[in-house]
Structure formats: structure tokens, C-alpha cells
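Support case: user asked for a sample of complex input and structure output to validate their parser. Sending the pair below.
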Amino acid sequence: GAVVSQHPSRVICKSGTSVKIECRSLDFQATTMFWYRQFPKQSLMLMATSNEGSKATYEQGVEKDKFLINHASLTLSTLTVTSAHPEDSSFYICSARDDRWAYNSPLHFGNGTRLTVT
Amino acid sequence: QKEVEQDPGPLSVPEGAIVSLNCTYSNSAFQYFMWYRQYSRKGPELLMYTYSSGNKEDGRFTAQVDKSSKYISLFIRDSQPSDSATYLCAMSHTDKLIFGTGTRLQVFP
């Protein structure tokens, strides 16, 4: 149980284009999902908290107009990297918490999306 | 100072060795502690979840939390080559997790 599916696993795009990444909780509902970014050999950095039916909460230093988050249902959150540039190349990982469990219960992660902007 | 400190390694051990992985933290409000394992190009996978101080064992894995020292550990007994991965500690006192940088472990046959 507690499977989080993330798609695509890898994407290559040209500078200036936009890329959408999907994150789905397959066997549970998740009012809250989290988006992380990970650089090589570095830890996961929280970018934003995605809330179903309301605006996402962004961490300090994360441009909300560049990283658009939509959480339209209890099982789907999307991250759109708008007008991507090479410095946006990174590993993006989503995570979700099962609504049946407390706010402090562990997160379940997707397998990440490797974004390369050329 | 980072909230969570973790030696990035790499740590290289022979098969069958006992592995000790550690994290220190500065925020005394942290109450929930987790260890995740991450294989290359994959998302983190939850290994252990503990609340407050104490020990928790699950198969070959033992997690220890010492809140007085702000120190947590993960022990892996009888390590296997398949344990080769990056191990991330994580902790929280709210709904957000704060991660360590991860320790890269290599278990050689």
C-alpha cells in the first residue's frame, strides 16, 4: 500500500518551454502533497506544500510564478515548471501523506522526475 | 548551522558487517524521526519511523533516538550488497520533514 506514482520519470525540454509533472496517490487520499527538489549528492529541499482545493504554500526562495502547483483532487497534484532554463535542471520528487494518518506520519515518495533543460 | 547534520560518506563496508549511520540535529522541538533509503535515480523509501527517544527494531534494522544528545542512529546488521544506497535521516515536529544530506553506503561482496 501507500504507493505514489510520479510521471514522467524523465523529461528533456528546450529552454523557454514549460514542463508538467504529475504526482498521484494510487491507493490513498492525500489532502496534502509536498514537492521536493534534489541536486546531485545533496539532500531533498522542500519547494512547496500542495493543498487540495487551495493555493500551495511555497518555501522561501522558491518562485511561485515559475513553479506552478495545482492540487485539483485528493489523489493528484501537478507541478509545472514554466519557461524552463538550464538551471532548473534537477531531480524533482513529490510525496504524499495518507489522510487517514496523523499530520506527523511519514511521507510516501514518488520515484522522481529527472528534468533536463537544454 | 544546518538543522540536521549527516555525514555524506561514502561509507564502504564488506558484506556481513554492522553498519552505523548517524544524524545530529539542533532543533529540540523535533519529535518524529525517520530513516529513508534511496537508490540511485529513485525516490526515498521509508525504512524506520520512531517517536521520541528509544529504540525500534525491524528485521536487520535498528533505529535509535537520543533526544538529550540530539542524536539519532540507524544500525544495519548483516549488511548485504543490496543495502548499497543512500540513507537519509528525516525529522519533524510539524507536517514538514527536514532531511539530512544522506549517507552513501556501499556494501561490497
